[in-house]
Prior knowledge:
The protein is of the alpha/beta class. It has 2 domains: 15-240, Aspartate Aminotransferase, domain 2 (3-Layer(aba) Sandwich), CATH 3.40.640.10; 243-366, Alpha-Beta Complex (Aspartate Aminotransferase, domain 1), CATH 3.90.1150.10. It is built from 12 helices and 17 strands. The protein has helices at 15-28, 36-49, 60-70, 85-93, 112-118, 138-148, 199-208, 230-240, 243-261, 295-304, 335-343, 355-366; strands at residues 5-6, 53-57, 76-79, 97-100, 123-129, 151-155, 163-164, 167-168, 175-179, 192-196, 213-215, 218-219, 267-269, 276-277, 283-287, 307-308, 344-347. Strands 2-10-9-6-5-3-4 form a 7-stranded mixed beta sheet, sandwiched between helices. Strands 8-7-14 form a 3-stranded antiparallel beta sheet, with no helix packed on it. Helix 4 links the parallel strand 3 (76-79) and strand 4. The protein is globular and about 65 Å long.
Amino acid sequence: MMSKIFVTQPFLPPLEEFMPYLERIWQEKWLTNNGTFHRQLETKLADYLGVSQLSLFTNGTIALITALQALRITGEVITTPYTFVATAHSLIWNKNNPVFVDIDPTTFNIDPNKVEAAITPQTSAILAVHVYGTPCDTEKLQQIADVYGLKLIYDAAHAFGVRQNGNTVLNHGDLSILSFHATKVYNTFEGGAIVCNDEKLKQRIDYLKNFGFADEVTVMAPGINGKMNEFQAALGLLQLDYIDQCIAARQTLANRYRRAFKDLPGIRLLPSHTEREENYSYFPILIEEDYPISRNQLYSKLREQDIYARRYFYPLVSDFPMYRGLPSAAENNLQVAKQVSEQILCLPIYPDLSEESQLKIIHNIHKKKDWF
């Protein structure tokens, strides 16, 4: 009997390989506060990702909030409704006013053409998201930010290791924020990071994530406790040994899905790009009108077969009670995002997904109309 198939499952390296890390933590008794493994992981991650400055965090949400604090963001921030709720929640926690704009119908990222029209004298920043690891139109967004004197922040939770034309997407904008949650391509159970290109800004970020302490008696700012502990950092070091192998396994799965669905009526795939190194963090498909049943019906049918695909992202963030009263949350302002959210279905993709399980998923989506 096959077990349940979820949209993603964390990769866990062999336990015996983790034991030496645990033994060292026990010996040193240094559990947090910039320990040995924490320092090693910051250095190795920065090197692997091709960035100059990286600060580790206990999770991606605290990293997002700290990024806003570090850049002293106030007033309105233009962002996307097509994202995980933490993107917008971070703005609320920082007492910013989210302003939603529509998304590009091909990439599902924030539409730069809509951004400029939403700018007001109260706008201080743009918070964009590399959805499913697909890079935003970074050039156009930077042009807009420069013209209007805005800060540009990227929620890069899906974009670990993604490169475009040989360059990491993480060096765009003022800051990029990563998530190392258990569901991500690279995980530390929980965790995250802020990437920047300025040593002084990294120092401010490091103060903020440690209550604002510069030393035992000096507090530089009203910081928060956002530090990554040694257990998370140790797992992160071990995960780095496997990350290329994991991404390669995801690529094999993604390619099999593409071959299976490329000519299936009613199924639309996101385009692939030869100039980009992807991480295959998600495999989204759109269920269009000429598919035999609706997206929600297919979602339910798959669940009956113990296939737990996700309608990711549905509902839109702008549909939740704390946001839907905003003028920018009006449905006529977000027509593309609304349509995509009602058609999207993310299929299971993770390194340990067996070929047998994947073929079961493919078979169930290929079933003919009379079966439905």
